[in-house]
């Protein structure tokens, strides 16, 4: 079975075997290692799943970055604090332009307010857009008028990473091969590998054919060892993917 914590640990084990260094996104922006992995986590839902991920990593002296949305389904101050205290990076998963239906000024007011609230819990140096695939608004468009670096932010993955040098792998749509169902979680890149499943990913790592710098994007709500929750997520995501295929074609 794919998208289980057992399979996730297999991925981590293989990355360690391949001698990758694990960096938070802020650390990578400041001082990128030659052979580095950034473990990015978009905490869209079920923050307790992200806490499990953070504990698994911390037990192996690995740090990642966790991006929290400012909605009840994601924002859990106790969990944010606990993950931060383990040494992981905390970031803001903003969707302000979607929330305010394209109003740039209201979106920016929300951005500043949410960022201030999050910084009262943990240090925040980076942000990352939440895709909101069902909305016609792309929150990255905020930065056509404003500059996030004016607010002490040093990086946003979709703007501050050269994905022709850093391979990007995301589990969006509950698959690693998601070009036809990813509305906004995609990048322009020269890398092309036939990776559909986590087993494909592990095999490519074993062959040592993947590049020296990789950014992963995990959505921890998708990963569980519980058979009932695993099946529920599978059914829900398959339905969602059909809708997203229509959006992508349009």
Question: What do these coordinates show?
Answer:
This protein has 250 residues and is an alpha/beta fold. It has a single domain, classed as Alpha-Beta Barrel (TIM Barrel). The chain has helices at 5-17, 25-30, 47-58, 77-85, 96-99, 104-119, 157-160, 198-206, 227-249, and strands spanning 21-23, 36-43, 65-68, 89-94, 124-129, 167-170, 213-218.
The CATH architecture designation is Alpha-Beta Barrel
Catalogue the unreliable spans: none
Largest sheet composition: 7 strands, parallel
Question: What is the gyration radius calculated from CA atoms?
Answer: 17 Å
CATH fold category name: TIM Barrel
The CATH class turns out to be Alpha Beta
Q: CA-to-CA gap between the ends?
A: 33 Å
Structural features:
250 residues, alpha/beta, TIM Barrel, 38% helix
Secondary-structure topology with pairs:
Elements: H1 5-17, E1 21-23, H2 25-30, E2 36-43, H3 47-58, E3 65-68, H4 77-85, E4 89-94, H5 96-99, H6 104-119, E5 124-129, H7 157-160, E6 167-170, H8 198-206, E7 213-218, H9 227-249
Parallel strand pairs: 1-2, 2-3, 2-7, 3-4, 4-5, 6-7
Helix pairs in contact: 1-8, 3-4
């Amino acid at each position: 079975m794919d998208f289980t914590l057992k399979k996730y640990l297999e991925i981590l084990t293989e990355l360690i075997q391949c001698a990758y260094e694990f960096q938070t996104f802020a650390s990578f922006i400041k001082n990128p290692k030659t052979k580095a992995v950034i473990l990015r986590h978009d905490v869209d839902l079920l923050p307790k799943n992200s806490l499990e991920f953070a504990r698994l990593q911390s037990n192996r002296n690995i740090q990642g970055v966790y991006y929290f949305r400012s909605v009840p389904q994601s924002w859990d101050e106790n969990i944010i604090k606990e993950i931060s205290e383990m040494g992981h990076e905390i970031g803001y998963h903003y969707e302000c332009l979607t929330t305010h239906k394209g109003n740039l000024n209201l979106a920016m007011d929300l951005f500043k307010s949410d960022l201030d609230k999050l910084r009262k819990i943990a240090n925040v140096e980076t942000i990352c857009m939440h895709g909101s695939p069902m909305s016609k608004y792309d929150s990255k468009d905020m930065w056509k008028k404003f500059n996030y670096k004016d607010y002490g932010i040093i990086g946003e993955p979709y703007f501050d990473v050269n994905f022709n040098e850093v391979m990007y792998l995301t589990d969006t749509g509950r698959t690693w091969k998601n070009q036809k169902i990813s509305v906004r979680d995609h990048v322009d890149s020269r890398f092309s590998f036939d990776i559909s499943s986590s087993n494909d990913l592990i095999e490519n790592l074993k062959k040592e054919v993947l590049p020296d710098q990789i950014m992963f994007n995990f959505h921890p709500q998708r990963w569980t060892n519980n058979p009932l929750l695993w099946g529920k997520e599978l059914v829900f995501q398959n339905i969602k993917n059909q809708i997203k295929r229509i959006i992508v074609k349009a």
